[in-house]
Amino acid sequence: MTESDTVLYDTTLYARVSTPSQNIAQQKEKLWKVATEEHDIDPSSIDVLEDEATGGNTDRAGYQEMMRRVREGETNHVFIRSITRLGRNMRDLNEAVHEIVEDHGVGLTVINDGINISPGTEELDLEQKAILYGLSFASDIEHEMIKQRTLDGLRAAEEAGKRIGRPIYGFTSEDGNLRPDDEEYEKAVQAIIAKEELGWSDRRIQRQIGVPRRTVPSVVERRDIYLGEKLDEDMADQAVDGLAERTRDDLEALEEQEFGK
What we know:
Blueprint lengths: L8 E9 L6 H15 L7 E7 L8 H11 L3 E6 L9 H14 L3 E4 L4 E3 L8 H10 L19 H6 L10 E4 L2 E4 L1 H15 L5 H7 L7 H6 L1 H4 L6 H27 L2
Parallel strand pairs: 1-2, 1-3, 3-4
Antiparallel strand pairs: 4-5, 6-7
């Protein structure tokens, strides 16, 4: 392809799932809707890239093509679902954001995390840096937590097909089979991250997340069950996004308090 044949896409949507069983079509539809309806972007200027790969693996075709377009000036704006699409450790995540935005002036919209950086931005402002920092705790969760569909800590119970006794916090037992309870499981993951990454007290976790204060130590102690290498990616992202939202609410409350003085 000659230079004159190069196709320029004003906007690139990047979608990724970890396993074929996850619905990438729904993710792409949401990205498309946000770009066209909320940002009023002409559909003819949009291109979609996608991958089926784990979060810790950046050597994937769609991701590499997205970054190539960024580096070579072939796109002006990137849309992703979650900041975790850009990496699972703090260094990679921050390097990717700064390369996209500050090095190449490409806009970045992260629809689940409330990040919307316009094209041409030369430097992240204080609020954007604060939000990015608040979200970056997710990057310190080992990438193996999203490798497979189910929790690694449940392998023995899954193979046996039964579990005797009362299920641990965050799980239900249906016909003897142990399964994550969506609401409680999400709270458990949030509690672990809040305790280990943000240093929250058990009392604060109870107040802001909803895990009983006396239950927090046992949840943290069983970290490998909740954050095992078979953790479902969507469940993990949902929990991380939920805690990020709580952190962002705290930041906004603090700002209102400061300005109100």
